[in-house]
Write a structure and sequence with these properties.
binds ligand C2E; eight-stranded mixed barrel; 542 residues; rod-shaped; single chain; 21 strands; 44% helix; 2 domains; binds calcium ion; TIM Barrel; alpha+beta; CSS-motif_dom; seven-stranded antiparallel β-sheet; transmembrane helix; membrane; 24% strand; EAL_dom
Length: 542
């Protein structure tokens, strides 16, 4: 990635990092405000229903008592006294009377002959409903009047009482409508006929359109339903309030994330510069991971793995910085550094263990450069390395410029340095292509070793790689062996060497020397005690 792309990417990621949490905060705030208003509408609708049930229950109780009195004349003095008594005893019923042939004949207030309008409609339970009726002696008040069709007894209910909820908020429309006819029985504010379609056969419905949030609740006992609707604008008012709390939190999270992204991006951008400083300041050191003989368990060599410890103590993984060094054109300096460190450490090793080998990882640029030959020649001289003490590992990715690399590899081999193809199977090279490079070893990549013993389709690949290596007459080193079952599988199929946590993790030079001498000692003891196989030393099982 070049610098311009990296900067653009940083800015884009930063913007995303800041805007996403804010967008989420606003969305959550909107959802919260919406749910809150919808809950309000729903609870109002339920309240209206409760009040209407109470009213109707009282009306029916009044009718029941009047019918039970079995008065021969409904307007008799005695019956009217009963009406007055029932009227007083009922909170929701405002007046009681008797209607016959659309004439109010009497009420708890006296005898009348008041012609009234025909019923607006009749309910399924035998009641006639008149809306907005005036009662004699109660001028100026309009009542909802319910008449028991069978007896003519009539009760007046204050029309606002059953919907007298939330009276202080005029923006909220409330009401009651008849489910079979769809007619509004009582209501205040906005009511749209098409809302009823949303209820269908359901107990309740909640929905919204551009204008309103609506909740409808059907009565479980009567053929009507209550509704309440809140203007959508109220949601936005609520949203502003919720956003005032949530957006600053979103902004804070966004800014923090933005800084984190920037920090990471800066680190990424600054890595080449930091690598240069690290090279100057000798912040690199080596770990060694033993390579074992699968038959004897003996450590026959080790791979040198570079480590970078920053001045603040942080360890940077090679997977991160090797690729950066390769891109920034710094990898050859890194390889140089590896060889310099090896130059000071490996001499002692080869002197004490003449058959031991150390493997060095080379990148594409190393494999294309004459400087690598010089570096290896110096290393061999400094460490008094003999044939086979040094080994280089080249990945398939490093073999792109085949002609140049072949020449360099040829020179490396002629110096007595052995060669291994690393991460085998992860590239796309053909067998014949690889054949032309003349390697000594093939390293079976960890990703394939991982599949051994699992049902994965790729576990079929290892036997193929083994066959390939055999046909190319290459010795094999299996990487990343973590279980005895994997080791057993590889051993049985003739893989000679292995490397992995089962045997030893990468370790310091001192630990490697200690492990080797412990292993040598235990082998001597084993020989004395009857020639048992020397196991990998304790220290190796990190
Ligand atoms: P690699 O060459 O494939 O090295 C093997 C990696 O696998 C090492 O990771 C090693 O620690 C890890 N490994 C070994 N056995 C096991 C195991 O049983 N389980 C697991 N999970 N991992 C295991 P490391 O040291 O982090 O190196 C990563 C890569 O960095 C190396 O992969 C190599 O490509 C590169 N690298 C390391 N040192 C150098 C170097 O000096 N020069 C160059 N050019 N590349 C290097
Ligand atoms: Ca390697
Ligand atoms: Ca490898």
């Amino acid at each position: 990635m070049n610098k311009a792309t990296a900067v653009t990417l940083t800015v884009v990621l930063g913007l995303v990092a800041i805007s996403v949490p804010i967008a989420i905060a606003i969305h959550l705030a909107w959802k919260q405000a919406f749910n809150q208003e919808m809950e309000l509408a729903s609870s109002i609708a339920q309240d209206i229903l409760r009040r209407n049930h109470a009213s109707l229950d009282q009306v029916r109780a009044v009718f029941h008592e009047l019918a039970a009195a079995q008065a021969s004349d409904p307007c008799s003095d005695e019956n009217r006294r009963l009406m007055a008594k029932l009227d007083l005893g009922s909170e929701h019923v405002q007046a009681i009377g008797y209607i016959k042939d659309n004439v109010l004949r009497c009420s708890s207030f006296g005898r009348h002959k008041t012609v009234v309008s025909a019923p607006a409609y009749e309910t399924s339970y035998g009641a006639e409903i008149r809306l907005a009726l005036e009662f004699p002696l109660l001028p100026g008040k309009k009542f909802l009047v319910v008449t028991d069709k069978a007896t003519g007894y009539t009760a007046a209910v204050h029309p606002n009482l059953p919907i007298d909820v939330f009276a202080e908020d005029p923006d909220i429309s409330v009401g009651l409508f008849s489910v079979p006819s769809g007619r509004l029985i009582l209501g205040r504010g906005n009511f749209q006929q098409q809302w009823m379609g949303h209820l269908g056969d359901a107990e309740q419905a909640q929905f919204s359109d551009t204008q309103s949030l609506v909740a409808i609740q059907r009565s479980s006992r009567y053929a009507f339903a209550a509704f309440a609707s809140v203007p959508t604008a109220k949601v936005y008012q609520g949203l502003v309030q919720a956003a005032l709390v949530l957006v600053p939190i979103g902004v804070a999270a966004g800014v923090a994330l933005g800084f984190a992204v920037r920090y990471l991006a800066m680190q990424q951008l600054a890595l080449p510069a930091m690598l240069k400083v690290a090279l100057r300041r000798h912040e690199f050191f080596l770990n060694y991971q033993p390579i074992v003989d699968l038959q004897t368990g003996k450590w026959v060599g080790a791979e040198a793995l570079i480590r970078w410890r920053r001045p603040n103590g942080e360890l940077v993984r090679p997977d991160l910085f090797i690729a950066v060094a390769e891109e920034a054109g710094l990898i050859q300096r890194v390889t140089q550094r590896v060889m310099t460190i090896l130059g000071s450490e490996a001499g002692e090793l080869f002197e004490r263990y003449p058959d031991f080998h150390i493997a060095v990882n080379l990148s594409a640029a190393d494999l294309e450069s004459q400087a690598t030959i010089e570096g290896l020649r110096c290393l061999a001289r400094e460490t008094a390395a003999r044939h086979g003490n040094l080994l280089i590992e080249a990945t398939e990715r490093g073999l792109m410029r085949a002609e140049v690399v072949k020449e360099i590899l040829g020179e490396i081999r002629s110096m007595g340095v052995q060669t291994a193809i690393d991460d085998f199977g992860t590239g796309y090279s053909s067998l014949s292509y690889l054949e032309s490079f003349e390697f000594d070893y093939l390293k079976i990549d960890k990703s394939f070793v991982d599949t051994l013993g699992k049902d994965a389709a790729t576990s079929q690949v290892v036997p193929h790689i083994i066959e390939m290596a055999k046909s190319l007459k290459l010795e094999m080193i299996a990487e990343g062996v973590e279980t005895e079952a994997q080791a057993q599988f590889l051993r049985e199929r003739g893989v000679q060497f292995a490397q992995g946590w089962l045997f030893a993790k990468p370790m310091s030079f001192e630990q490697l020397i200690a492990g080797l001498s412990a292993s040598g000692a235990s082998q001597e003891c084993a020989l004395q005690n009857g020639g048992m196989r020397g196991d990998a030393p304790e220290v190796a099982r990190a």
